[in-house]
Amino acid sequence: MNRTTIDFGIDLGTTNSAIARLDGVETEIVKNNENADTTPSAVLVDRQGRLTVGRAAKERGEYDPDNTCVEFKLRMGTTGRPKLFTAAQRSMEPEELSAEVLRSLRRDVSDKTGEEISAAVITVPAAFELSACDATRRAAELAGIAHAPLLQEPTAAALAHGFQSGDDNAFWLVYDFGGGTFDAAVIQMREGEFTVVNHRGDNFLGGKLLDWAIVEELLVPAVTDGRRGFTDLRRGNPRWRKNITKLKLAAEAAKIQVSRAESAELRLDLEDDSGRLVEFEYDLLRADVERLIEPFAVRSINLCRKALEESGLGPGDVQKALLVGGPTLSPYLRDRLADPRDGLGIPLDHSRDPITTVARGAAVFAGSQRIDPAIFGGPPPPSGEYGVELEYRPAGPDIEPFVGGKVTGPDPTGCSIEFVNPETQPVWRSGRIPLSADGTFTTTLWAERGRANTFRIELTDATGAVRPITPSTLTYTVGVVDTQPPLTHSIGVGLAGNEVAWLFKRGTPLPARRRSLLNTTIGVQRGSGKGMIRIPVLEGEHYRADRNHRIGRLEINPEQVRRDVPEGSEVDLTIVIDESRMVVARAYVPILDEEFDCVLNLQTETVPDAAELAREAAAEKRRLESARRRASELGDSRAAEVLARIDAEGIVANLDAEVNAAEVDPDAAVAGGKRLLDLRAAADEVEDELEWPGLVSEARELLPAVRELVEDRGKARHSRELDAAADATQEAITAHDADLLRQRITELRRLATRVLDASDDLPFIAFHELCSLQPEMSDQREARQLIATGRRAADAGDARTLRDVNAALSDLLPTAPPPPDPFSTVRMGR
After folding, report:
1. What's the gap between Cα 313 and its chain centre?
2. Are residues 21 and 136 in the same domain?
3. Category of 507 on φ-ψ map: left (φ > 0), alpha (ψ -120 to 50) or beta
4. Count of CB atoms within 10 A of residue 496's CB?
5. Which of 41, 377, 620, 749 is the least crowded, having the fewest Cβ atoms under 10 Å away?
6. What are the start and end residues of every segment in region (Disordered) (predicted)?
7. 717 pLDDT above the threshold of 50
8. What total of structural domains would you count in the chain?
9. What is the pTM of this model?
């Protein structure tokens, strides 16, 4: 079948995956060979090397975990610990495993429809890092899907609900609680289009956390209650992998049962210390599951509230919350969300199957994406006949859509083109549209709602005779469509001093392009192997570089340069991000007059080392407890609120569980790394609240000092910069944003430094501070000589010589010296 639009959408899920097709205005789930709507995201490789995907692989995992793999989506974009299928001695990375799931879905389409698809829209969590998105693209290529636009899962869910919706000028909240990830997205519907206003999410918050909580807090204690022979039965002990896998699968099944009943019976055989099979029975109570899900529900609700608050909305402004993902079938979770006090207090919409909604929405989006003719185009027109290159949107809110194009082939002089909608009553015709001398034309069509409108394209020559043309039809559907997708995490570059220069702020519409002027902090010597220009690209929101996720690095090494690049050389960096969050970086180095292009290698994250993860987690917990004691001593109510949220969300307990399993389970190691970042950010937030009075005091003392300096020694441009900096500082104080205020204080100090540099005061301050660092310098004799020269220059007021002396003294230090303090007392005494 020759398609003009992609039409197929795939939900590549943590637990289950599905593929759907758009047919007119309806979506259809393509069932697998077991006639099921979803395929478990599970892979088995047996001792003959045969690979199986789906239910059989998942069930095999109960007694053969060494040769099966599940939940690998959570490690997309990481390297370091591939899955080893021991029987066949075959290793596979997460994207290779995902590719097998995609390949299985492609086969289902072929078996059911006879169509071999080479293009499909694939959904990803909105909170996915760029490295995980890039890995998803690679998985699609490995599976034979050459054209695979990525779509954020909450956007897909909104499309499934809203494609033919009559709602207008309304806000929706997408609550997407999946098997392994959570997304909250605020959607605005307006004039037949919708926009993602804001998003918050967590890549490691999903139903699998509840499964593990059931295993670790209920089932393992019951197994090891002293009446059975199990020594050190825990998730992190490799000896018990088979037993733990059995318990995990049983917990997952029982969890689903108690969403419809008060209890569920678990009955399974476990191997004890001596290898004997021991029958284990347990009644899982709905009340216990509800207790265990509470911290995860709290975390998801807090993310929703944050997304709404940042959008300037309250529960009363939102028409409905769309429930997506298997866990939202739980009556308890639905009641919890509906509660106006502790939940969302927004009407819930569960009119669509929450398990297949994302796949259906992906198919809707796929119907609005035209096929790249180079990948899956129809046959070219026969030699000597006409073809037409069309420009139009396959779907949109307009009933009179615009279409343009160009007729190719024989001389178009005197030819006309006409579009006919034969299914309307009466038949609608555009009338004959004369072609221009180069064969181009523009017109508008008329389409009916509620169906796909297929227009016949008719070409007539100068005599009025109808001539064949390829393609001969155009299809357009009236429906709600997505506008520009937003960037879900801010993107920036890491700078010296653990700082970040943000290029794209969260929520930036895609595609987007940004440019930034940077300066190198080390020199590069051509062909020597010494020095390298490294520009780390970061993703996150924190003002400290090391609190963000490093997604890639642009590098220019000595072998790539034609001449030496001195320290402090300018680098003109441009980063471009497309709709699917593909990132391309270009660095222009003026001193070389050369541009370096690089599609960033986003797969830079390795699975954390278990021992290092445990050490860092212990250090962060100590820091949190220290902040907790200070908050208690000071009676700080804001810090107490943050601490209460950390406790309610169970961040520390969740981190401990992942750390304890990290040595055996790479998924746990990756999740533990993410939770460690969460704990660091949470501890930072507590410390920020405790630090807030001091920051405000510092800012209010600094402003008049900088103003005095600008008035005394600055220029007109410095006065303008100060006015802007003063306003920005006040905004940060009003917003009670410690990160932002800290940045504003830094900017004020930098302004003072620029004023002193322009007035030639800065070299004198820098010289004084470098003199205090003399004991650290590598060559004491040369240091003494330079300092003597510097003192003579300072006495003579010779700023130029002093700059040279400062540069030479800096070279004698083992590390770059700290920036000079613009308010050093030396400034007034030179």
Report:
1. 23
2. yes
3. left
4. 12
5. 377
6. 811-830
7. yes
8. 5
9. 0.81
